[in-house]
Specification:
The chain is α+β, with helices and mostly antiparallel strands. It is built from eight helices and 17 strands. It folds into two domains: 2-179 and 233-306, PPM-type phosphatase domain (Phosphatase 2c, domain 1); 315-360.
């Protein structure tokens, strides 16, 4: 069954091109509402959760999708993607709705693993980009980064373009993480220069902070060059990882999440919450709240895919968490009762942050609380 981010209905583009970390309009207060959702394929031990938050940004431009079964393929195949739009939400919403279909079509009913699947993912991204261009022949729909995970019984395939990122936790450590496509990466820089482009202030043409994306057709006009050799390319970087029993989980997220926390910190936090028996979708919601508290100003989306080797609920971890919550509750009560007037949340937080509190969540610390 398809699970798709609606993206509210906010597809309008802001005036001018929005760049990933340049000046942007922010709200007076963040929009923190989330709709976490998830699902499970018990027969092959796959669970997923997903959530998204608009945060401080004036518009929601992220989107995501999740498929626990793929048309025409046997059980054990699944597809997940996170997309982060810029210059409007259209390209991201298009990708969430139509990239899976292009992937299914390219895979066929008997994909050859792993090389045939890697080629299929590459074709799917390029075909989706061509379709997006055909839908808006007169107008610029903006652009979107994308990171996708295709699960087969034997392999984990990651396809990404831009700075939405994926990370695999295996045997308690980060075993793989995608590398953002930035203009100054050697291979990206060579393609940009060969297509007649420039890099200024670490940005493509002084404007765009990523060098691969769906859409962004104003940067795909170099004459006589195929789509994968334009200033901005929709060709994904594809990695095939042979599955192992020690595989725990894969986290896919837009760059607003990685702005707030490192991959190692996220891996520790996710593992610790799984030890508490937290459902993947509620874990995603807590992770995004934590990133908001840590100061992320961007839209944020995350999809957590748990494999059979994921950490399981642990009575000792649950006991420690309950004790921590009780201790924090007592300490906050003390701060209120000892103050002449009720302290602000920031004052309470700063006070607690200065104290030595045992058993705070690894990776997230007091921000999780």
């Amino acid at each position: 069954e398809e699970e798709e981010e609606e993206g509210e209905e906010e597809e309008e583009e802001e005036e001018g091109r929005r760049t990933h970390d340049g000046p942007r309009s922010l709200l007076d207060a963040p929009r923190c509402f989330q709709r976490p959702h998830g699902g499970a394929a018990a027969s092959w031990g796959l669970r997923f959760g997903a959530s998204a938050v608009q945060g401080w940004r004036a518009h929601m431009e992220d989107a995501h999708c999740a498929w626990l079964a793929l048309p025409g393929l046997p059980p054990g195949w699944a597809f997940f993607a996170v997309l982060d739009g810029h210059g409007g939400a259209r390209a991201a919403l298009f990708g969430a709705r139509h990239l899976p279909g292009h992937v299914f079509e390219a895979l066929g009913t008997a994909p050859d693993e792993p090389e045939g699947v890697r080629g299929a993912l590459r074709r799917a991204f390029l075909n989706a980009d061509a379709r997006l261009r055909a839908l808006w022949p007169r107008g610029e729909p903006g652009g979107s980064t994308a990171v996708a995970l295709l699960v087969s019984p034997r392999f984990l395939y990651l396809a990404h373009c831009g700075d939405s990122r994926a990370m695999l936790s295996r045997a308690g450590a980060v075993a793989f993480s995608t590398e953002d496509h930035r203009p100054l990466r050697p291979r990206e820089r060579e393609r940009i220069h060969n297509a007649g482009g420039t890099i200024r202030r670490r940005r493509l043409e002084g404007s765009l902070a990523v060098s691969r994306a769906l859409g962004d057709f104003a940067y795909k006009e170099a004459p006589g060059r195929p789509p994968e050799l334009q200033l901005v390319s929709a060709e994904p970087e594809v990695t095939a990882l042979a599955r192992q029993a020690e595989d725990e989980f894969m986290l896919l997220a837009s760059d607003g999440v990685w702005d707030a926390m490192s991959g190692a910190a996220l891996a520790r936090l996710v593992a610790s919450r799984l030890c508490l028996g937290l459902a993947p979708e509620l874990l995603c919601a807590q992770l995004l709240d934590t990133c908001l508290c840590k100061g992320s100003l961007d839209n944020m989306t995350c999809v957590l895919v748990c494999f059979p080797g994921a950490p399981r609920p642990c009575e000792e971890a649950i006991r420690k968490e309950l004790a921590l919550d009780a201790a924090l509750g007592r300490r906050v009560s003390e701060l209120y009762s000892s103050a002449q007037e009720p302290p602000s949340l920031n004052t309470v937080f700063r006070t607690l942050a200065s104290e030595d509190i045992p058993d705070l969540p690894p990776g997230g610390g007091l921000y999780c609380k």
